[in-house]
Amino acid sequence: MVHAEVEAQRFSFEAFTRHPFFTEVNRWIVDRVIGPGRERIVDLGCGPGAVTKLILERLDPAARVIGIDPSESALARARSAIRSRAVEFMQGSAEWLSRLVSSVDAVVFLNAIHLVRDKAQVIAEIRKALHPGGVFAFNTTFFNGAYVEGTTGFWRRWVVHAVQVLRERGLDIQRDAKAAARQFLSPDEYADLCVQAGFERPKVELVRIEMTPESLEDIGHFSLFIEGALPGVPLAAGADALKEGLRRALEDTGFTKVPRNWLECVATAV
């Protein structure tokens, strides 16, 4: 278990969250959800508290935030970084959210819904935790539609080059390995799941950001991205191959920054 926690931290999303555009795509949600009348807010999948801090910036004095995450080590970092009476952190999973909270005004679930295997079940569980009129807001860049027109070749070349690097080093991907990161949904499919769970049909929007080479290298060190691009490859070997593959792909395509879409969704409970 300790080894798993260390491995998860080593190949976590955390380095990627330090880039300015990451704050931008999360603030898009926070600005539309946090405000008057929203007094009980759940930051689901809060991790070490990056989004919790954004929520606190807009929180009414009487409002409260409940940060929930399955990782006790991430929660420990959040508790250390955020010392506010307006926040409570608890360990828990999106799959059984309604056992932890009920009749809340808002649930924000940022940059994590792509990790969920049974998205229909989790969205239904989130609906149970909300009162009628409450809102569920989420975002992700792992979805069908994330690639901006004209950039598909870059992403393909990156993976091809990474595979070449692995072969140069005597390794190969496992073609039959199941890659969770490839199980992408479209914006319409996400909207359909919200309606099925008891929400009004949400308006899903795309926010375009520019990814720097440094941010691309950081996402190439994220376990989900590695497993999706190079299924079955050990994370350390995959991260190294993606780093070198990125250098070659940027050289091939001439990109200095690569645009990418974030899916942003706010759904109101019926």
List the keywords.
seven-stranded mixed sheet; 42% helix; Rossmann fold; 270 residues; alpha/beta
Description:
This protein has 270 residues and is α/β, with parallel strands linked by helices. The protein has one domain: 3-Layer(aba) Sandwich (Rossmann fold), CATH 3.40.50. 42% of the residues lie in helices and 20% in strands. It has helices spanning 2-10, 20-33, 50-58, 72-81, 119-129, 152-168, 187-197, 213-219, 223-229, 235-253; strands spanning 40-44, 64-69, 87-91, 104-110, 130-140, 203-211, 258-268. Strands 3-2-1-4-5-7-6 form a 7-stranded mixed β-sheet. Helix 6 (152-168) packs across helix 10 (235-253). The longest helix has 19 residues, at 235-253. The chain is globular. It starts with a helix and ends with a strand.
Question: What's the N-to-C terminus distance?
Answer: 41 Å
CATH first level? Alpha Beta
Q: List low-pLDDT spans.
A: none
CATH architecture heading: 3-Layer(aba) Sandwich
Structural class, by secondary structure, is alpha/beta
Radius of gyration: 19 Å
Strand order of the largest sheet: 3-2-1-4-5-7-6
The number of domains is 1
The biggest sheet amounts to:
7 strands, mixed
- What would the CATH topology be? Rossmann fold
Helix percent band: 40-55%
Global outline: globular
Instruction: Let me know the number of strands.
Output: 7
* CATH superfamily label: Vaccinia Virus protein VP39
Number of helices: 10
Output mean pLDDT. Answer: 93
Output the helix-strand order. Answer: HHEHEHEEHEHHEHHHE
Strand content: 15-25%
